[in-house]
From TrEMBL:
Binds 2 divalent metal cations per subunit. The keyword Membrane does not apply. One of its GO terms (biological process) is proteolysis. This is Endoglucanase. It comes from Halorubrum vacuolatum. SUPFAM superfamilies: Aminopeptidase/glucanase lid domain (SSF101821), Zn-dependent exopeptidases (SSF53187). GO terms for molecular function: aminopeptidase activity; metal ion binding. Zn(2+) 1 binds at residues 66, 175, 228.
Length: 350
């Protein structure tokens, strides 16, 4: 299948490992790519990457997408060599059993999250809700060897490759590497903007929008646009169309609200107008639960106009996150067109 974007880079970004607070491997890729297309690149004390294209106007726009993925930190190693973990980000523990992981100890070690065979489950075990604290990782090694290779504080990531699935792309960490990728693609296309654009790859979004909050103060933009995935529950188990939030293949999503932010009406109206003018297929997103970096910029250094563009994605926070290729391309197109048409003269105040 041919794509209107650099699929190899998207695969590289999504397959890289980088849990909240430890985004080093992803940060290296982002710096490599953005240093080729922007005027200068900086990294702050938290690990946020900010790559800037200088414009002529005394007006700045921040575009943010987060680098971190959900993962774990080792909290205990048993005498028998089983590893217990603490979550970094929001997991549904039901989907974790029998998954393959990588424990980043003295070396990268393949492990599996253990699952008791259904043949031997007690009635109590069948009825109990899974918790991350109940999980254990089996490294296939004895206790003495594991204790030499794994320590409290080591990181654990879910193990999955990225691949093409019909008209879609599926893998781990599309949340939010697919949006980091969209931001990089837009930076490649924009050459001489009227306004200064800060392309921000943020850290620790999955544990509380922490990187974006810091950047809202440090770069203090006049306008902020965040990029993230959003829920696409357009699957048989969801009974009502309204509960689907967005639909794969129906276009990029312009966010109206989530549980952390109500986007600025004049910003999402202009995003919609740009999409209509450019003939970019789009849909509007009302997300009942979940937050994004949008909220990190809205009020961290005084009130700021904010908007958000989302990529509809099925099976969020699993290793099979799935997005439609045309929706990804549309997101890149809308972000690029919006930034190229931003003059600093639009009045977003209410």
């Amino acid at each position: 299948m041919s794509f209107a974007f650099d699929y190899d880079l998207l695969r590289e970004l999504t397959e890289a490992r980088g849990v909240s607070g430890y985004e080093d491997r992803v940060r290296g890729l982002v710096r490599r790519e953005l240093s080729e297309t922007t005027d200068h690149v900086e990294t702050d004390a938290m690990g946020n990457v900010v790559a800037t294209i200088e414009g002529d106007a005394d007006y700045s726009v921040a575009v943010a997408a987060h680098m971190d993925e959900i993962g774990f930190m080792v909290r205990h190693v048993t005498e028998d060599g089983f590893v217990q973990v603490d979550p970094l980000g929001g997991f549904d523990a039901r989907v974790l059993r029998a998954q393959r992981v990588t424990v980043h100890g003295e070396e990268d070690l393949t492990g599996v999250i253990g699952s008791v065979p259904p043949h031997t489950l007690t009635d109590e075990q069948r009825e109990r809700n899974d918790e991350v604290s109940d999980l254990f990782i089996d490294l296939g090694r004895g206790g003495e060897e594991v204790s030499e290779l794994v320590s409290v504080g080591d990181l654990v990531t879910l193990d999955q490759t990225t691949t093409i699935l019909g008209d879609c792309i599926t893998g781990k960490a599309l949340d939010d590497r697919v949006c980091v990728f969209a931001m990089i693609e837009a930076a490649r296309r924009i050459e001489e903007p009227d306004v200064t654009i800060h392309f921000a790859a943020t850290v620790q979004e999955e544990v509380g929008l922490r990187g974006a909050h810091a950047l809202g103060v440090d770069i203090d933009p006049d306008l902020a646009i965040a990029l993230d995935v959003t829920v696409a529950n357009d699957v048989p188990q969801i009974g009502k169309e309204a509960d689907a939030v967005t639909e794969l293949g129906a276009g990029t999503a312009i966010k109206l609200k989530d549980s952390s932010v109500i986007t600025s009406p004049k910003v999402h109206s202009r995003l919609t107008s740009v999409a209509e003018t450019e003939g970019i297929e789009h849909q509007h997103e009302v997300l009942p639960a979940g937050g994004t970096d949008t909220a990190g910029f809205q009020r961290s250094n005084g009130a700021k106009p904010v908007g958000a563009i989302s990529i509809p994605t099925r099976y969020l926070h699993t290793v099979t996150e799935t997005a439609n290729a045309d929706d990804i391309a549309g997101t890149i197109d809308l972000l690029t067109a919006f930034l190229e048409s931003e003059t600093g003269e639009h009045d977003y105040t209410l």
